[in-house]
């Protein structure tokens, strides 16, 4: 069974940076897509970025140019480097693999 554990969230000022991690276990992940989603208070879950198993990446418009998704297949870890964070980036960030979800990690962008 796939298990996902997100970490790296926290409180950051606008313009700051955070690096999220998602530790995956339960199978090999080098042959599957892995992605990040987020859910802001009172809103639905929205797509942030995806890392394709063939090396491609895709970003939402809000993430493009500021966020970088990467993966380490040797350690089954997915990352999300977030720079120039904005208050509207406040949300719980979730890792998604094969429609499995972790518990999420809270990111709060506030001064």
How does this structure look, described?
The structure is a single chain. The chain has 111 residues and is mainly β. The protein is built from no helices and eleven strands. Strands 2, 4, 5, 6, 9, 10 and 11 form a seven-stranded mixed beta sheet that branches. Strands 1-3-8-7 form a four-stranded antiparallel beta sheet, with no helix packed on it. The protein is globular and about 40 Å long.
What is the element layout, followed by pairings?
Blueprint: E1 3-7, E2 10-12, E3 18-25, E4 34-39, E5 45-51, E6 57-59, E7 67-72, E8 77-82, E9 91-97, E10 100-101, E11 105-109
Parallel strand pairs: 2-11
Antiparallel strand pairs: 1-3, 3-8, 4-5, 4-9, 5-6, 7-8, 9-10, 9-11
Structural class of the helix and strand makeup?
mainly beta
Report the strand count. 11
Q: How many distinct helices?
A: 0
Topology as a string of helices (H) and strands (E): EEEEEEEEEEE
Could you tell me the strand content as a percent range? over 45%
Round the Cα radius of gyration to an integer and report it: 13 Å
**Biggest sheet layout:** 7 strands, mixed
Contiguous low-pLDDT stretches (5 residues minimum) are none
Principal-axes shape call: globular
Overall pLDDT level: 96
The portion of residues assigned to helices is under 10%
In whole angstroms, the N-to-C terminal distance is 40 Å
């Amino acid at each position: 069974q796939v298990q996902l554990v997100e970490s790296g969230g926290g409180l950051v000022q606008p313009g700051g940076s955070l690096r999220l991690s998602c530790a995956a276990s339960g199978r090999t992940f080098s042959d599957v897509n892995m992605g990040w989603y987020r859910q802001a208070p009172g809103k639905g879950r929205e797509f942030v970025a995806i890392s394709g198993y063939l090396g491609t990446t895709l970003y939402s418009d809000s993430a493009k140019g500021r966020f970088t998704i990467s993966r380490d297949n040797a350690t089954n870890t997915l990352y999300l480097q977030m720079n120039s964070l904005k208050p509207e980036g406040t949300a719980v960030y979730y890792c998604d693999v094969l429609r499995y979800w972790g518990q999420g990690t809270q990111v709060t962008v506030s001064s």
